[in-house]
Design a protein that fits this description.
31% helix, Ubiquitin-like (UB roll), Cytidine Deaminase, domain 2, homodimer, eight-stranded mixed beta sheet
Amino acid sequence: MSQEVLKKLIIEKVYRNGSVMIEEDEIIAEERIDFYLNGMKLLSVMGIAQDQDAHIVGFLMSEGVITHVEDIHSLRISDNGLSVYIDASVNEDNIQNLFKEKTLTTGCCVGVTGNVEDKIVKEFNRSTVSYNVDMLFDEVDRFYGSSALFRQSGCVHKARLVLKEGEAIEAEDVGRHNAIDKVIGKARLSHADTQDAFLIVSGRLSMEMVVKCVMHGITMVISKAAPTRLGIKTAQLHGITLIGFAREGKMNLYTHSSRVDTAHTVIQADSTSCIIEEVCVAAS
Amino acid sequence: MSQEVLKKLIIEKVYRNGSVMIEEDEIIAEERIDFYLNGMKLLSVMGIAQDQDAHIVGFLMSEGVITHVEDIHSLRISDNGLSVYIDASVNEDNIQNLFKEKTLTTGCCVGVTGNVEDKIVKEFNRSTVSYNVDMLFDEVDRFYGSSALFRQSGCVHKARLVLKEGEAIEAEDVGRHNAIDKVIGKARLSHADTQDAFLIVSGRLSMEMVVKCVMHGITMVISKAAPTRLGIKTAQLHGITLIGFAREGKMNLYTHSSRVDTAHTVIQADSTSCIIEEVCVAAS
């Protein structure tokens, strides 16, 4: 049995004129999927629980661990969809090769922040800072406007950290995690205070992005792209305001939306509790 | 000294009506950057050689390896821009934590295909297959048209493998590498012949994507996004036709473009050699 790939959620959509609509939205369920080879845990991959049997086959055949499909003796997905078991004749050298170097060769990776997440001892972010919605739309407009590299190459991710006092720090990279690491590193090296700063990014908001915010007291993260379910769950549990699809004069507020100060708000009374409840149900 | 982040290249732009323009284009230089901590190689990251000192600081502080910026004793980038050396007081437990689990926790990752690339013994792909340009534009049109998940969630990557006989296999995931692994796994599990198949993907064409094609005899890869310099170099050296920015009735041909059969072509006589020369110069 495979898990559901899309989950429904009630969210707030804020428009450029300050109006707010409560709407149902669908978010993608990104899961940690464990791959087992010949009875041993091989590795875990963050992905969606769909075609996970083909995933391990394609991965191992691309890496030269399995040479022919006939070398596969059995292939099974667990009932909850989150473990895949493959038994096969393998090339042992190429298994060693998988881990021979500690390389984050992804251009977009962190194999790592997920490990930190388990032992975060940071408290829930109780900051009562509020962000004016017009200012947020202006910052989003500036986000791409200032990137020559993005316009010229068409393939970089960008991060913009806006400090409490309004100063902005920017960085770019082909990798979405790299751009965030760079902008945080710049802030740290300049001894900037990242408490109550907010981060604008170009890439998908998955768990690692939110964990990076948690680690540095960054209260809010905004992306022009989509969040994943685990990103939303992590933001909910750590008190981070998470905003996705910030583009074309609109933003989707997923968690802790009370920090966004909208001028003429028409939010339904129970909207916030709706969001929390849905996320907690989805995440449990 | 930092490396140049953008490289100029002469490419062919093919339009929906079959016409071809030779134009200069700029591509992003994705590099393997080595991080050294207290005199020891820590890991490598694929990224652009810009702000690489801030990158290691942000990364290590997000992972809890370095707690305060004052704990950094020295920070230096090598002359070629590809190595960063940091000396700092560190939390040893959290260094171990970085590597405690073999986890590809990225949603878009392969820490791995790069390792295979060093030892690929596959021959240069000399296939003389040719692809009709109208058929290619039609396949690109179909690419997103058929994805309900993409439309609903707005955050999945997709891969479509078109076999020589015209049959197409599709898969999706939040990770661009995962989607490709899945589609190749599906092909393998169904005993499909991937020789001379072509792959359409939604994500950036970096080296790992091209290596996956090499490993499975896939002759051509098309993306609606940009290629990186290392992706182009790898495609050039292994005989893979690489097409980027396939959108809005246009495609950019970066390598081995002779396989694309355009109706009324107006290619300059020396265009192909231009491309090869430029890539080899850039890659050396």
